[in-house]
Specification:
This protein is α+β, with helices and mostly antiparallel strands and 239 residues long. The chain folds into 2 domains: 92 residues; 140 residues, Alpha-D-Glucose-1,6-Bisphosphate, Chain A, domain 4. It is built from 7 helices and 6 strands.
Length: 239
C-alpha cells in the first residue's frame, strides 16, 4: 500500500517540527505560542504515524516487503511523541506556579530587573500565600542557605557563583546585599529572572534566592531546580 510508504516521511516531519519548535522561538522567528503549536502537531503526527505503522506490522500482508520502512516510522513517530507527552505528565504532577523563593514571607524583591519585565505576561509582584502554600507542598527542600561567614565575603562568592551558572548579571549591589540576574533557558530561550539577597544572620549570613519566569503558568519545576543548583554550588564554593 502506497500510504504505508508515506509513514516514515510523516514521522520524520513530526521529528522536524519538534526539533525546530524551540530554536525557532529562541531565534525569535516566531512567538513561543506558535512553537508550542508545532510541538502539538509533532505529537499528533508522531502518534498517528507510529500507531499506523504498528498496526501494519501486525498484519502479515501489510508488512510484506516494508518491514524496515514500518519499523522506522514506528520508532521515529512514537519516539518523537514520547518526550512532549512526558513533559505534559510532569506539568500535571506539579503546581501551576512560576515564582519560587526561599523566603515565602518576605521574598527578595526585583529592582533592576523590573524594567526588563515591563512587557512580560507574568507580573513582577509576588502572588502571596496561595503560591507559597503550593510551593511548600511541592518543593519543601527550597530553603534559605545559612553560612557562618560575614555577608561581605559571602556576597563575592554569591556573585561569582551566579556568573559561573551562566546567568546574565543585571545588578550587583554589595551595600544592599542584592544580586539580580537573568537566566535564558537552552531550548526555547525563555527568560527567567533571579534575585539573590544576602543578609546578616547572627555572626554569619543568610542567603535567599527567588527565581521567576516571565511567561507561562507552569515552569515545570525549572525555577525550583535552578535555585537548588545555585545554592548547592554556592555552598560547595564556601566550604
Amino acid at each position: 500500500m502506497k500510504i504505508l510508504r508515506l509513514l516514515p516521511l510523516i514521522a520524520l516531519l513530526a521529528l522536524s517540527l519538534l526539533l525546530i519548535a524551540g530554536p525557532g522561538t529562541r531565534l525569535e522567528l516566531w512567538d513561543f505560542r506558535f512553537g508550542f503549536s508545532l510541538i502539538r502537531w509533532a505529537v499528533y503526527l508522531g502518534l498517528g504515524s507510529g500507531a499506523l505503522a504498528l498496526i501494519a506490522l501486525l498484519v502479515k500482508r501489510a508488512r510484506k516487503g516494508q518491514l524496515a520502512t514500518l519499523a522506522l516510522a514506528l520508532v521515529v513517530g512514537l519516539g518523537t511523541a514520547a518526550l512532549p507527552l512526558s513533559l505534559v505528565q510532569k506539568v500535571r504532577s506539579l503546581p501551576y506556579i512560576h515564582d519560587i523563593s526561599t523566603d515565602l514571607v518576605d521574598p527578595p524583591a526585583f529592582v533592576a530587573v523590573a524594567p526588563l519585565r515591563a512587557d512580560a505576561p507574568n507580573p513582577i509582584e509576588y502572588a502571596g500565600e496561595e503560591v507559597a502554600a503550593q510551593q511548600r507542598e511541592a518543593y519543601p527542600q527550597i530553603q534559605p542557605l545559612r553560612i557562618d561567614v560575614y555577608p561581605s565575603l559571602v556576597f563575592d562568592h554569591a556573585l561569582d557563583t551566579a556568573r559561573a551558572m551562566g546567568w546574565e548579571i543585571v545588578a550587583s549591589e554589595p551595600e544592599e546585599g542584592r544580586i539580580e540576574a537573568t537566566d535564558t533557558t537552552f531550548w526555547f530561550g525563555f527568560k527567567d529572572d533571579v534575585v539573590i539577597r544576602i543578609r546578616p544572620d547572627g555572626t554569619g549570613s543568610v542567603v535567599d534566592v527567588r527565581s521567576k519566569s516571565r511567561v507561562g503558568l507552569s515552569d515545570v519545576g525549572a525555577n525550583a531546580a535552578r535555585i537548588q543548583r545555585y545554592l548547592d554550588a554556592l555552598s560547595e564554593r564556601m566550604q
